[in-house]
Design brief:
alpha/beta; FAD/NAD(P)-binding domain; five-stranded parallel sheet; 18 strands; globular
Length: about 550
Amino acid sequence: MKKVAIIGTGPTGIYTLLSLVNDQPPCSVTIFEQAAEAGVGMPYRREASSPIMLANIASIEIPPVMTTYIAWLQAQCPEMLAGFGVTAGSLHERQFLPRILLGEYFRQQFLQLVHKGESQGFILHVHTSCQVTDILAAGGGVTVTAQGRPQAELFDFVVIATGHVWPAENTRPHTFFPSPWSGLMKASVPACRVGILGTSLSAIDAAMAVVTQHGHFCENTARGSQFILRDSSRSLQIVLMSRAGMLPEADFYCPIPYQPLQRVTPEAITALIADGSAGLLDRAFGLMVQEITLADPLWSRQTGLARLNADNFCDAWFAARQQQDPFIHARKNLQDTRLNTLTKYTVPWRYVILRLHEVIAGIVPHLDPRDSTRFASGLARVFIDNYAAIPPQSLRRLLALHDAGILTLLPLGQDYRARKDGNRTVIFAGGARHTYDIFIDARGQKPLKTRDLPFPGLRRQMLCHGGEIPQVAANFTLLEPAVARGRIAFGAIPYLMHDRPFIQGLTVSAEIGETIAHALGHSVPSQSAAEQQTDLQQGYL
């Protein structure tokens, strides 16, 4: 019986276990989770979130574990749902719900999954409050060292599913937060001038964490959402900022599962890649133009798509928002989104861009350095803006904060600077100086490199043989060092973002988990005792 270790019990770890239990022969699985509870990923924990922070994925899009999310919700008692601000009678599959409620779902599904695995002959060990401190690959397997465990343990196959990584909390008085997940939820933020770098998902979470300390939202009023600020907090001012100074748009109605593309197929992308890196980005964009024109000829003509290229398509995409006050545009966007949802109308050009991003992403590892830079500054921004559309309720809340005189938006331009001035943060942009008492960097997860790995043994092996960025096969197993091939699956998303720019979200976690479970079925068998002794002598173990 194979011995498998899964490090982390967020969505990627859960979906990996699900695919193992459903599709692979029984094996021994040891699960390590550094938090006190297994089965709840960091963004979904109570200490990292609040009921006002919404999951950015509708119920219908969440890959099921033991049951679908909507079925699980409908089975809960009304009182339990009410504790999360959810009315039982209002449940539907396209609803955006609090993240901590989704965490409850994953927790219960994980426990049921463990029970199912055990009933099928799997040997399952779940260690909580147990941080893995080192991983080391050798020909005889992979050793895992964990706090509180008497000794390192040898496994045939190890899954690294450690999820997002944020800077550690600062024990000093909080005036600067390197992320919304670095102590902000526990900090007492006074009514002062607060700067938030970012305008999308993480930035909205940061704003919600601050404002809920100073007032409350009244939802579903005649004016939509309203924010009631306490009299004692009148000096609260929040500034969201980004280079462009634009707000994200609301999530839009579209058919799920996604309809297939006609021109930009996986086969077509494979053929483009086979023709070489030279001109690859421009050839892929030409194929995109065909797909968009086929899906929405009117928008294509109005946008002048035939005259655009991979560099200026981004300018055309954002033109309408840049020409209008961002809050006026947001109100119009909300109106359009609501009407389209009521009538079940899909905006063709939005939908085709949404379906394009994952297929086009296949070219990214094959782009030359110049085209990689062009892609990151152009098409990638379009794709991210489109798929990272936010729940309509989140946009309504931003508008409510603006209407209350609390929230403003600052376009920084390309050449802004930031520096510390005592306990304050100063931003220089557009010839002006902006000072903030509290500053939060909310630009989201940044790609990490091999040197950032928290496992010194594996880090050393990978730096010696694999370079600055983890070398990972299509099945997410490490290619380097060679001794790790077929033995370590690397599903830690921040380290995969360099050539997989869109590898985030629950659907991706499910795909990674399924792929890794399949890889386990083709993993390298363990060595003999004699071979293990050789590895010991060579210093692998």
